[in-house]
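[Discussion] Sanity-checking designs against the backbone

I'm trying to build intuition for which residues belong where. Below is a structure token string of 329 positions. I'd appreciate it if someone posts a full sequence so I can compare it with mine line by line.
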């Protein structure tokens, strides 16, 4: 199995993020930063929402996927690429592979919504299915595909080029918004908040980088509290994109550079999602709404020293047949 993540505790630094930004230049949308008086009133501060939901493929995941695919040596790229993902990274990798004119393979669980599978297939990826649980079945299918095809496996989060690609969000944010006190980003596998932390802390050591996590999938918060990498045995949340656990490399960055991780329940996530839809007229998915919910939480409201806070809206890929408003009824 050819796996570029076979690097002991991947190293990512500001130079790597800047290299990624140069590599991706002209291929991505410079996503806007939006504000809302209504949202500010609920948060008790100025919030600046970085709209990665408006990125190509509908999420930030394209940044890391494209950076990883473009940085592959030609002999590896020509064999194709593989990932295991049920949604946004799958689309990102498929888009990146199509751009480089190489094949993409994606391992997806059998219970993935049809809308997500259709989106990945529309981008030209070859889909291989695995059982939803246990995770060992996903790994088994990935190994079989690698053994049969010689493709290069790219982790959705625990890969140096993926982390560096996600870090380009911080470079943009610090150019777009002056005097930020903090950046809030949701945490699943940790690639997003890790990349942001690497870049933001190098450029602005005093800035706070805050993770946001569902309380039903709080491995990052628990790991931070105990100072060691912990897993969540049975993660549950409406934010399906955040149910994957931290990688060893993303954990090391979160441990050292992320200031804290705030957890929120699903009701708060749904309320935040609906607020953004109603007041800002943009579509975000539950995984993005977790970061908004954290910024609106009572615990965060007490951070009076944080007056100007960026919130990364990580994606907007929603299954419209499964909207969560019923959770509030």
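Best answer:
Here's mine. Compare freely.
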């Amino acid at each position: 199995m050819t796996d570029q993540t076979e690097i002991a505790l991947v190293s990512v630094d500001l130079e790597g993020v800047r290299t990624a930004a140069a590599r991706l230049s002209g291929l991505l949308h410079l996503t806007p930063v939006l504000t809302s008086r209504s949202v500010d009133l609920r948060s008790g501060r100025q919030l600046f929402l970085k709209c990665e939901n408006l990125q190509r493929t509908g999420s930030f995941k394209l940044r890391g996927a494209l950076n990883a695919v473009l940085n592959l040596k030609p002999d590896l790229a020509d064999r194709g690429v593989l990932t295991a993902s049920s949604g946004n990274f799958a689309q990102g990798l498929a888009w990146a592979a199509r751009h480089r004119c190489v094949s993409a393979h994606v391992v997806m669980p059998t219970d993935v919504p049809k809308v997500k599978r259709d989106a990945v297939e529309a981008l030209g990826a070859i889909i291989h299915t695995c059982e939803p649980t246990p995770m060992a079945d996903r790994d088994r299918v990935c190994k079989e595909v690698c053994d049969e095809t010689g493709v290069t496996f790219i982790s959705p989060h625990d890969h140096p080029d993926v982390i560096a690609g996600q870090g380009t969000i911080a470079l943009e944010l610090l150019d777009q918004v002056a005097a930020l006190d903090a950046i809030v980003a949701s945490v699943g596998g940790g690639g997003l908040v890790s990349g942001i932390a690497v870049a933001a802390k190098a450029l602005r050591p005093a800035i706070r980088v805050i993770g946001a996590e569902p309380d039903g999938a709080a491995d990052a918060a628990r790991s931070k509290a105990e100072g060691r990498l912990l897993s969540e045995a049975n993660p549950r949340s409406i934010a399906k994109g955040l149910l994957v656990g931290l990688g060893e490399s993303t954990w090391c960055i979160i441990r050292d550079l992320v200031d804290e991780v705030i957890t929120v329940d699903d009701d708060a996530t749904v309320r935040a999602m609906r607020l953004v839809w109603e007041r800002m007229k943009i579509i975000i998915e539950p995984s993005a709404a977790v970061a908004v919910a954290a910024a609106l939480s009572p615990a965060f409201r007490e951070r009076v020293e944080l007056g100007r806070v960026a919130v990364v809206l990580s994606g907007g890929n929603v299954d419209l047949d499964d909207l969560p408003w019923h959770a509030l009824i």
